[in-house]
Amino acid sequence: MSDEIKPDELLDKIDYSTGGGSWMDTPVQIRPGMYCYASNPKSVETLGLPNARAWNPLDDDWQLPDNWQEIIHQGLKERLDRFRTFKVFMDICVRCGACADKCHFFLGTGDPKNMPVLRAELLRSVYRNDFTTAAKILSKIPGGKKLSGSRPMTLEVLKEWWYYFFQCTECRRCSVFCPYGIDTAEITIMAREIFNLLGLNIDWIATPVSNCYQTGNHLGIQPHAFKDMLDFFVEDIEEITGVNCAPQYQKKGADILFITPSGDVFADPGTYTCQGYLILFKYLKEKYGLDVTWSTYASEGGNFGFFTSHETMKRLNAKMYAEAKRLGVKWILGGECGHMWRVIHQYMDTMNGPADFLEVPKNPITGTVFENAKSTKMVHITEFTADLIKHGKLELDKSRNANRVMTFHDSCNPSRGMGLLDEPRYVIQNCCDNFFDMPENTIREQTFCCGSGAGLNAGENIELRMAGALPRATALKYVHEKFGVNTLGTICAIDRAALTTLCEYWVPDVEVAGVHELVGNALILPGEKEREEDLRFEPLPDSEEE
Amino acid sequence: MNQKYLIPLITVFVLFLAAYVGVEGAKLEWFFGIVVPYVSLIAFLVFFVLKVLGWAKSAVPFKIPTTCGQQKSLPWIKQNKIDNPDTTGGVVIRMLLEIFLFRSLFRNTKAAFARNDKNRLSYSWEIFLWVGALAFHYAFLTVLLRHMRFFMTPVPSCIKWLEWADGIVQLGLPGLFLSGVVLLAAALFLLARRLFDQKVNYISLASDYFPLFLIIAIAGTGIAMRYFTKVDIVGIKSFTMGLITLHPVPPEGVGGLFYAHVFLVSVLFAYFPASKLMHMGGIFLSPTRNMANDTRAQRHINPWNYDVDTHTYEHYEDHFRDKMIEAGLPVDKKE
């Protein structure tokens, strides 16, 4: 894109000084490059969500229902009763400012309304006006509204909410630093639920949700096409390894149902990760007789419903247990994905459980019982693979990844909504000798978002995404220059897409790879031929030297 | 802009004057000394409890702790049992560290961006807010506990020890209590942050300045009485004992400053439940900190979990049957 903002122009814009004036008197300006297009009415209709119509965020008239203010008020009220998080977080912020410079969007844009505390205040100011006695009393005296920091809901305020709650990737980094654990993601989630009561979703969320609901995955890949795409990978793998790794679909009575984000089937470099899964499952089938099945019906691990509403999340997630039950598998294995794992780890069992038709996950090869997943009955693939490696059940040839100098990007949700930190690192380090972590303020629970999570990975908001990507990119650039890191490992499908754009933009010499791409390269399949190329059809480091 | 702190400042000043003049001029000792403290204490207790009950009434549909360390997974991977607890014991330790040591605030960093050929975005450890906050809260607690001597006869030995420790520097007569000085200094530091740190200034509301000015005024009047005007302690003790035993008699000749002090404290107590100061209660109820990260091991129940429309496999197969059969995918109904 020629009109895309250049890195230098973007860096020139960064200014952390807030300027004078009051934020409440600073009106919102919805600026191209910083927002996502409005939802397609067809997608809104598929789910039966309200106020489906074509609309444009830049228009003055958003074509809201007449009683939109009442809908918001009732929506807030209902959520204050349903979510203690929301209610407590509305009341207890002391505005200490510890969160202010923790947000990647603030660090990348310098826009003060991207400080988590202000993002929340956008909503709190209306909460105080509508729901607190103190503000109601104060509002009776002149200037009292200013004193209580409250304001009534207006169209202007709604537009400000919409703009800034779609500039939050629900990454929860601020919540790590908050002395009360206030989680802006939770507030953003509530705001987005409210938007959906008014038909104000963005299309990059609404259409994947509709696809996922009807067709089984976000990308709308139909069953036969899904199989075609995996067949294509099977051919590639056979060319490289000489082994046919064809997967099974919807196999009743299989040991394990495997579910991964459809992004891995669809776009590079996720496709290489997907090939890694196919190679791993083939290996386990041949060596140990483990029977893994895929499903075209439950062909989506991710859940953009999570970025729409709790209800939509539940509707999309229901497929996982439904399919596991229908197929009669023992337990479910989940692929590399970020928000997918927050949903599985913190929501699935509560929403759609109990999964009493499944068994407590046990790795039949190592005998390990995954006690940490004994109720939800779903295991993360890096937990699974790490266990296999630890027990010496995988034959890995590290030299096939010797050209890679790795670092690892902790995805927001697995790190702050789960704590999956050492498992992927263990897998990487067993597949590759060169590993260097990024600086400690930028990894593990303090990791920076890719800048494109929570449904913001669109094309039209590229300036926002690249600004939000800056903190991650800066840390990556540091290890790239210091240790020669050339590959950024990750366990998230959004990351594989988003970080690739990030690298092209900020650190062009670094590639992005899923952890199981490394596994796929290193794993020695029974009966394989001498490999000359890696999964990207690039010459293996060894053969290059010869 | 200035309104944000000028109005709270003026309000606190007016409150001070109201009590001072009310007693010195209008002889309203019974009002400022008896009515106001009782009313404010009742308001504090009632509204505090109501607020907490209001929070408690809201459901906790999902277990969503913010995990700040390695999870419990495979037995050979070392779990961070405090920052990512999977047991109640771990949660208790996490909460205690949060409540007593402000653990999350201790992590605080400060980001800086330098626009030059390196374009470095750097993060440095920022300890001052943690130190200031800790000093402020512990000094306040100590002052509050020391004041318990006015409401108990005989004074319990633990309070005497506290006084001894608080006065350990043995400076001046009456001996200097560190807590009062630290409280005032810490409150001034927190105020200075709000005034001079651009980001904090921008996010601050009048309701952030008001309690600070109020506490500064309370500490100021208290220090003035103890060290400078040397108020009649014996008279005050008989008054406070009267308050606590419900036989209040306003003391003679303790002066307007004492009533102003009591009035400001009363305002703080009455204001407390309606303000951000409720973080004192809220921190116990914050679901991102007070829950264990065991959601895959232990099913959490959502009290309002309701059924939703889903797209079932049968729908799906009906929709795609022909294509599935053609692609060789298994189907339940062959038609």
Defining key terms:
heterodimer, A: 546 residues, mainly alpha, 2 domains, five-stranded parallel beta sheet, 24 helices, 48% helix, B: 335 residues, 2 strands
User: Count the strands of chain A?
Assistant: 8
Corresponding CATH architecture of the largest domain in chain B: Up-down Bundle
Helix count from the secondary structure assignment of chain B: 13
Fraction of residues in H or I helices of chain A: 40-55%
Indicate the structural class of chain B. Answer: mainly alpha
Beta fraction of chain A: 5-15%
Give a quick account of the main beta sheet of chain A: strands, pairing sense, barrel closure.
Answer: 5 strands, parallel
Shape of chain B: elongated
Note the run of SSEs of chain B as H and E.
HHHHEEHHHHHHHHH
Q: Which regions of chain B contain 5 or more consecutive residues with pLDDT less than 50?
A: none
Mean pLDDT, all residues of chain A: 95
* Broad CATH class of the largest domain in chain B: Mainly Alpha
- Structural class by sheet pairing and helices of chain A: mainly alpha
Q: Report how far apart the termini of chain A are.
A: 41 Å
Please summarize the sheet with the most strands of chain B.
2 strands, antiparallel
Your description of this structure?
The complex is a heterodimer of chains A (546) and B (335). With 546 residues, chain A is mainly alpha-helical. Chain A contains 24 helices and eight strands. Chain A has helices at residues 7-13, 41-46, 68-82, 84-91, 104-109, 116-131, 133-138, 144-148, 155-165, 173-177, 184-197, 203-215, 223-241, 263-266, 270-288, 310-327, 339-352, 381-390, 412-416, 422-431, 462-483, 493-506, 515-522, 541-545, and strands spanning 248-249, 256-259, 292-294, 331-334, 378-380, 406-409, 487-490, 511-514. In chain A, strands 1-3-2-4-5 form a five-stranded parallel β-sheet. In chain A, helix 13 packs across helix 15 and helix 18 (381-390) crosses helix 20 (422-431). The longest helix of chain A has 22 residues, at 462-483. The model of chain A has no long low-confidence stretch (mean pLDDT 95). Chain B has 335 residues and is mainly alpha-helical. Chain B is elongated, with a radius of gyration of 28 Å. In chain B, helix 1 crosses helix 11 (256-271), helix 5 runs antiparallel to helix 7 and helix 9 runs antiparallel to helix 11 (256-271). Chain B folds into two domains: 3-304, Up-down Bundle (Fumarate Reductase Cytochrome B subunit); 305-335, no CATH class. In chain B, strand 1 and strand 2 form a beta hairpin. Chain B has 13 helices and two strands. A two-stranded antiparallel sheet of chain B has the order 1-2.
